[in-house]
Design brief:
By secondary structure, this protein is of the alpha+beta class. 51% of the residues lie in helices and 19% in strands.
């Protein structure tokens, strides 16, 4: 209000000053131009009174002495320029078409204001028909007239500025005195929201006009303060409960627009903490099934439970519990639906892993058991009478049983690894010696497959038990031998890089296609199923390697090209 009062006063003063200044400027310009016209007229009358016959050169010389800042042009009735005090007459061309010349020939006097074709500046022209019929034209630049006006304007400007400053000071003082009590009341009411005291009103309690108002304000402030404190406590309590929840919570209006969310919901959808109820949080509405479920929940007033996986973030699964809300409002808007969101990504992944594991185990156990059942049926039925055939079938049964034992041992080993988080002992192992021991154990198998196994590098110690490390190297080296070409190589390199130990197992075998490289560490996954089973593999070796390496804080990296071989690079923490 203070600004409005000051603004109104200033507008009135400024309008008055503008009107008065405009009138003054207009008057000064009019007066100065009229004086200039009169002066030029008097000069022309003086030139004409010198003689009955116009002496052009003499008149020009006399004009230069009398008015050096002005210009005289003598023009014949035909428009030829005889002399000009500011230019060469013969270069100026005809002037018969000049408005002031035409008017002077017709009426005796002529005037015009325009830019000069000769000197190129705006000029005021006054022309007179002399006694002998010659046309005398006197002129002067308009800039000279304007300069005189602006010099005269100095007083007006000084007075205007002084009046403006005075009006500003007076309006500010008046507005401050008028609005000071109202500002105090406004500040007291505003301060209630932040818990500030209202002692600022004490200075005005002696004012008879304000005393009744202040009494009502005191009561209002007291009630308002109590209500605000209660609401603040309730709001903080609800926000604390919502933000401490691990599940996301969304509150939607009747049209499906977002009204509120908690911290967990913002984290689920990647919305910034300081971004308020960001529109980006509503990214879940891109799911058609979820939009339909929201509409169904609101229209039919029934709760809906929905699992959604078609979200922008690939691989994430969320479970939405939608509940209808009626007759409630949030910040003045009607609430339509409340949504509780639970991240079930890991649960779904675990369920999928268990289902795949069960299916794969059943399949892997069924194959040898079917073979054993077939062989035993043939032996028990008496169909096999030859002693040699009976021995061969018994041997085949033993092979399948051994295969079952190996498969069950690998399954138990994998289950044991998955049940551990991190072993608590401080065991370590000499990596180069363990690699050589693993190579010695596989020497016979390498010789049978005509594959050369080499171990090189420098001795270093890794923070992993020797038995676990041997198992890792045995699995990788054995795979390098199984899936190699005749005359191929398996190279084991041990290096110490910074605070880590790197073990590289490279072979010159059949290699792994690019589309299978991300899946070879999955349980029971085989690139070439027929060759894997023929070589006696269970499909669990690389899964065991991956779990052991991860269990001891390491990592494994694969590089492979079909037909050229594979390189497995393992990094383990160095023992301290």
């Amino acid at each position: 209000m203070k600004k409005r009062l000051m603004g109104s006063t200033l507008i009135i003063v400024l309008v008055s000053l503008l009107i008065s200044n405009a009138a003054g400027v207009w008057f000064l310009f009019s007066q100065q131009r009229e004086d200039a016209r009169q002066n030029l007229r008097e000069l022309l009358i003086l030139m004409d009174s010198q003689s009955q016959t116009t002496d052009a050169q003499g008149a020009a010389e006399q004009f230069r002495q009398a008015a050096p800042d002005k210009r005289l042009t003598i023009i014949t009735p035909e428009g030829e320029v005889l002399v000009d005090t500011k230019a060469e007459g013969e270069q100026m061309g005809g002037h018969a078409d000049r408005p002031e010349v035409i008017t002077a020939k017709a009426t005796g006097w002529g005037e015009d204001t325009r830019a000069s074709d000769t000197v190129g500046v705006p000029m005021l022209y006054v022309a007179k028909r002399f006694t002998d019929g010659m046309i005398g034209r006197a002129s002067m630049p308009l800039s000279s007239i304007d300069t005189l006006v602006w010099r005269s304007m100095t007083g007006f400007l000084v007075a205007s500025v002084a009046a403006l400053l005075l009006a500003l000071a007076l309006s500010s003082r008046m507005a401050r005195r008028v609005l000071e009590p109202l500002e105090a009341v406004s500040g007291a009411l505003t301060g209630v929201l932040s818990g500030a005291s209202t002692t600022v009103l004490d200075a005005y309690r002696g004012d008879d006009e304000l005393r009744p108002i202040l009494r009502y304000i005191d009561k209002l402030v007291e009630r308002l303060g109590a209500s605000i404190q209660h609401l603040t406590e309730e709001r903080d309590k609800v926000n604390l409960i919502l933000d401490c929840m691990d599940e996301g919570f969304l509150l939607l209006d009747e049209k499906g627009g977002l009204l509120a969310s908690n911290r967990a919901a913002r984290e689920l959808f990647g919305a910034p903490e300081d971004g308020g109820e960001a529109a980006g949080l509503m990214v879940f509405t891109r799911s058609r099934r979820l939009r339909e479920a929201t509409e169904q929940c609101h229209s039919q007033k029934n709760s809906v439970v929905l699992d959604v996986a078609d979200l922008p973030e690939a691989g994430r699964s969320l479970r939405f519990f939608l509940s209808p809300v009626s007759g409630r409002q949030y910040e003045g808007q009607s609430v339509g639906t409340a949504i509780l969101i639970s991240d079930v990504t890991e649960l779904k992944r675990a369920e999928s892993i268990r289902a795949d594991f069960t299916a794969n185990v059943s399949h892997e156990l069924k194959t040898p058991l079917t073979s054993i059942k077939g062989f035993t049926d043939m032996l028990s039925s008496g169909m096999v009478t030859s002693t040699e055939d009976q021995k061969r079938f018994s041997s085949l049964i033993g092979v399948e049983v051994d295969r079952l034992i190996v498969l069950i041992n690998d399954i138990l080993k994998l289950s044991e690894l998955e049940s551990l988080t991190m072993e608590q002992d401080d065991s370590d192992a000499p990596v180069l010696a363990t690699a050589r021991e693993a190579a010695d154990l596989l020497a016979i198998k390498a010789e049978e497959s005509q594959v050369t196994v080499t171990v090189r590098g420098r001795e270093c110690t890794a923070a992993i038990p020797a038995a676990r490390l041997k198992e890792v190297i045995l699995n990788l080296t054995e795979n390098g031998i199984k899936y190699n070409h005749t005359g191929g190589n398996v190279d084991i390199l041990v290096e110490n890089v910074d605070d880590s130990v790197t073990i590289t197992v490279a072979d010159t075998g059949i290699g792994i296609p690019p589309e299978a490289q991300d899946r070879v560490f999955e349980r029971f996954y085989r690139v070439d199923k027929g060759r894997s089973r023929k070589a006696g593999g269970t499909g669990l070796g690389l899964a065991i390697v991956k779990h052991i390496v991860a269990l001891y804080g390491g990592s494994i990296h694969l590089e492979s090209q079909v037909g050229q071989g594979s390189v497995f690079r393992i990094t383990l923490p160095q023992s301290k």
